[in-house]
Amino acid sequence: MEQTSGDQQEPPRSGEAQPSVTAPATQTTASTTTANTDTPAATNTTATAKATRPSPLARSESLLPPHNRASITAVPVTPDITLETYEEEKAAGASYFARKKTDHEIAASPAPLSPNLPAGQNFQSQIDEGADAGKNFLNRLSVVAMSGRRESLSDIRATNPNLSLSGNIISATFSIPHELKYRKGADWELKPRRGQSALFDSFSHLSSDEAPWNHTVVAWPGEIETPLDTLSPPGTPPATTVHLSSLNVLSAPIPIDGDKAPPTPPLVDGLWIPREDMQRLETQLSHDKRIKTVPVWLADDTEGHDEGIRLKDQGRWRRYAEHDLYPLFHYKLHEPTDGRAERIQWADYYRMNQKFANKILEIYKPGDIVIVHDYNLMLLPSMLRQRAPHMYISFYLHCPFPSSEFLRCLPRRKEILEGVLGSNLVGFQSYSFSRHFASCCTRILGFPSDTTGIEAYGTRVEVGVFPIGIDATKVASQAFTPEVDSKFEGLKKLYAGKKMIVGRDRLDSVRGVAQKLMAFERFLEMFPEWRDKVVLIQVTSPTNIEEKEESEDKIASRVNELVMKINGMYGSLGFSPVQHYPQYISQDEYFALLRAADIGLITSVRDGMNTTSLEYVICQRETAGPLILSEFSGTAGSLKDAIHINPWDLTGVAEQINNALTMGQEQRQDMEKSLLAHVTSRNVQFWIAGFLRRLVNVLGSRRDIISTPLLDRATMLRKYRAAHKRLFMFDYDGTLTPIVAEPSAAIPSERVITSLKALAADHRNAVWIISGRDQEFLTQHLGHIKELGFSAEHGSFLKHPGTENWENLAEQYDMGWQKETFEVFQKYTDKVPGAFIERKRCALTWHYRAADPELGVLMSRECQKEMEATVGSKWDVEVMTGKANLEVRPTFINKGEIVKRLVTTYNAEMKALDSPSHTPSGGSNRKIEFVLCMGDDFTDEDMFRALNGLSAPSDGTAEVEAANMFSVTVGASTKLTLARWHLLEAEDVIECVALLAGVGSGGGGSTGGGAMSMGEVNLAALSTVEDHLPAGVEN
After folding, report:
1. Are 447 and 441 within 8 A, CB to CB?
2. Three-state DSSP class for residue 769
3. What is the rounded CA–CA span in Å between residue 349 and residue 365?
4. Where is this region: Disordered (predicted)?
5. Which of 322, 355, 387, 686 is 20 to 30 A from 581 via CA?
6. CA distances from 5 to 501, 502, 540, 601, 609 (A)
7. Are 432 and 78 in contact (CB under 8 A)?
8. How many Cα neighbours within 13 Å face the side chain of 748?
9. What pLDDT band is residue 371 in, cutting at 50, 70 and 90?
């Protein structure tokens, strides 16, 4: 998560020596200069320098607001926000969901320092009006603000009668809003979780009476702490002094988190939680007055059973997301590795998403809306779509999304994108992030896309920009309290006569703390008149993200080196220009800092959402301190009136610090007025209401279109293992091998041959290749596998497993149509360089793969029209369009007829076996229990159509049970298909065959490596089925 304000929740532990950002009660200052002192008097040297250097106010561009400066707006840098990106949408009409401009207007902001504020224009009224603006959409849903949820939901249903909305929202997020402490047999200790404050505030809003929804959060409990309650006789000396306060406060260690004891090493056997304690927590969370939560318990099946659950290595579930996804999404690449750790981490990531899907499906009801949050759950939308095709699913990414050049470096890039594309709507913080996502879907998956969505799997996945906000009313109420006032006055007194620049960041590599310190050093170097007059107060809290390359200690060391360098060069015995506090601070201290600051400085090198900037605007309503914000922050596009800087341009940042310090009162007030208007109106309520409005509109406009879900390999493997008779039917070109320019070059790989051999070797499996290829080609390349059955030329010829003879199913048919067909094809071959004709026994095919793509498509359409008007009108043939080809064949010969023939034949044979001894393991021998059919083009739709007909009756009389039938279309085509599942490319087909046959990624069988040599995706599916990593994988 990118929201950062929630980290300031816990004060330092009492009894320990802690640096404080507030003034001690007895501290005094020798200076009488106020905190709002203007530029200090210049010395003679400074005056000479000023004579040759124009003042900031004399520079024409500096007089313009930041969003009107060409040096800012004309540079195409990430996040690539234009001035029009977040303009109001034009209302489509006066409908129930129509958004009116007046709904989001707020009262004009008065000058922050005006002494006499008229009624309705004071800060609190503006906060209230701004908060109401964000709620207007939901209030319109309820007609009368306090009329209750039932009435408002009736209005929603009346406006969208074709949507079966239940009124329930399920929010899936990685961690619950609480940090937990466990004591056996007692109630769980719940305290607010740091960070993600904006997200949790949106949950609170959806769960409140202000929203017309019944809201439930599904989340992982997180790493569970257990107190060390050691029983010992009175007077027994402690075994260690780690947890005890020092007798001498000067010698006390300074922990990073003053409220938490140093972490204890994990128990060897894990933390055992009995079933009754698990149920106690579930009851506590379900009855929480603020947010109703359903926990997802994450553990291997060997670590849990009916009596309870054993939690081992709890952090394993977050490792893939934080080691691989988080750094890459922030444009950081780690060094290549041997991949062993990544295989295990990916399997855990996959299983974790599956466990979330299982829990959601336990509480899901038709018509519920599911909102999935952030990078930890990027596979969840597709997993839900696989098992509930009609579910209403949205996904929101709270962190940046990288360009395709960076995402290509992720080994599991395809699976991540496919996972998100299970959604109806995908939301991002910034336009550049949404543009990158759409571009990645096109460049990596091959799906057509534009700025508003992606065409995928027969439907359209909408993409939108929804900048998140904060709960402005809540922040204002917390920032202006007597306790904060006291600390605010202490800070002003402590730093009287000095300008305060305040920064508060997590200590990770993307927050730009080092860049901030280097820019401040450059500022002191360039503007010596500010030395001893400006102090940078930097608070850094520990990050909750595990990073591979740059550990927290390494970053902290770099920060400490810069702090010591600056203080050593520009400080003195009585003053240090940088005050660095590597600790958590309390909420009151945090807001006092923001209120006391003269400048808010945020130099993140890449982030999605930084709520500190928004909270700074609220806290500055009295003093109107300028906000300097990195253009690489996700909030830069929203806060367009802030001073935008490039954190890598140290000189530019230094100049903007000087500009902010010398900015006139009127200009600062104008900046604050504009920023405050935005923050109070575009609050968290406005964000979640807009996101839901867009989702409902998307669902309403595309209610009759159902996408084809990604093949669920785990479900397929379960069904395969449970079946006693299985039938496999594969197309060849584009399915077992990729499409190539020259058909004769489509040779099966060694892994294809090995996988088919292993699959066909099982006597319970009947494996068939149903292709448009002729007998000669199939015999040459796959005929040596005697257990395979073949159907050539789209069903014209048949060869059963274990036999040598081909059966001609079209020998009684008149083939006189071929001569006229050949003549037409020859005419177009002469027109299209690179085209050629393939003559088969029962069909003729015109290929244009090697021709110019545009010319080939144009001529193929003309050829098809002529063929249908001539040959098609005289003979009982059909003209079929394939991938870069046209084929003419008899109408009664197609792959669908072969599928019907095989299914009915095998079922008849099984019914004829009435002796239990003929059935392996004593199972049923009445019908086929598993069918897998895969194909990539239009001709394969005949197979899918036939299977749908064979599985149609749901009363048990069907030839194939629908739950046991897997029809899979292959390719990135956006066509509507009769198949029930999809795969992206031929390589995925081989992976699935290898999974069922137990073939490793190198082509070896189960005896040649097994799970150890299995690919990451297959290993994840196998781990999901067995609910633990296979033996030996973790070694």
Report:
1. yes
2. strand
3. 26
4. 1-71
5. 322
6. 18, 14, 12, 15, 10
7. yes
8. 25
9. very high
SS3 state at 1011: helix
**Lookup result for tokens 């010698």:** 251
pTM recorded for the entire structure = 0.77
Q: With the C-alpha atoms ordered 567, 570, 576, 578, is the resulting torsion angle positive or negative?
A: negative
Task: Classify residue 733 by its DSSP letter.
Answer: B
Of 412, 401, 410, the C-alpha closest to 374 is 401
| Neighbouring-strand partners of residue 425 | 394, 462
**Nearest-angstrom CA–CA distance, 842 and 796:** 6
Tell me the two tokens of residue 311.
């939690």
Distance CA 146, CA 167 (A): 17
Indicate the SS3 state at residue 947: helix
Q: 93's torsion region: left (phi>0), alpha (psi -120 to 50) or beta? A: left
Give the torsion through C-alpha atoms of 147, 148, 150, 151, to 10 deg.
10
Q: Which two tokens stand for residue 470?
A: 């904060």
Average pLDDT in the chain = 80
Neighbours of 799 (CB within 10 A): 21
Instruction: Give the orientation angle of helix 713-722 with respect to helix 1016-1026, to 10 degrees.
Output: 60
Rounded-to-integer distance, Cα 694 and Cα 97, Å:
9
Taking the C-alpha atoms of residue 103 and residue 106, their distance in angstroms, rounded to an integer, is 9
**Cis-peptide, bond into residue 79, ω within 30° of zero:** yes
- At 216 the pLDDT is 95
Higher pLDDT, 79 or 860: 860
What is the arithmetic mean of pLDDT over 733-740?
Answer: 89
pLDDT value of residue 554? 80
The Cα–Cα gap between 727 and 208 comes to 53
Q: How far apart are CA 562 and CA 550, in angstroms?
A: 17
Kindly provide the residue ranges of all beta strands, DSSP E only, lying in 948-1001, ordered along the sequence.
Answer: 965-970, 981-983
The dihedral of CA 777, 779, 784, 789: what is its sign? Answer: positive
Could you give the 3-state DSSP secondary structure of residue 603? Answer: coil
Report how far Cα 335 is from the mean position of its chain's Cα atoms: 23
Place of tokens 């669902």: 699
Residue 689, SS3? Answer: helix
For the cut 90, the answer to whether the pLDDT of residue 481 exceeds it is yes
b/e string for 295-325 if b means 16 or more Cβ within 10 A?
Answer: bbbbbbeebbeeeebbbeebebbbbbbbbbb
CB 838 within 8 A of CB 772: no
Residues in CB range of 208: below 8 A, 6 or more apart: none
Task: Transcribe 322-386 into DSSP letters.
Answer: IIIIHHHHTT--PPP--SHHHHHHHHHHHHHHHHHHHHHHHH--TT-EEEEESGGGTTHHHHHHH
As a whole number of Å, the CA-based R_g of the chain is 34
Q: How far apart are CA 278 and CA 286, in angstroms?
A: 12
Q: How confident is the model at residue 231 (pLDDT cuts 50, 70, 90)?
A: very low
How confident is the model at residue 730, as a pLDDT? 95
- 10 Å CB burial of residue 369 (0-12, 13-18, 19+) is buried
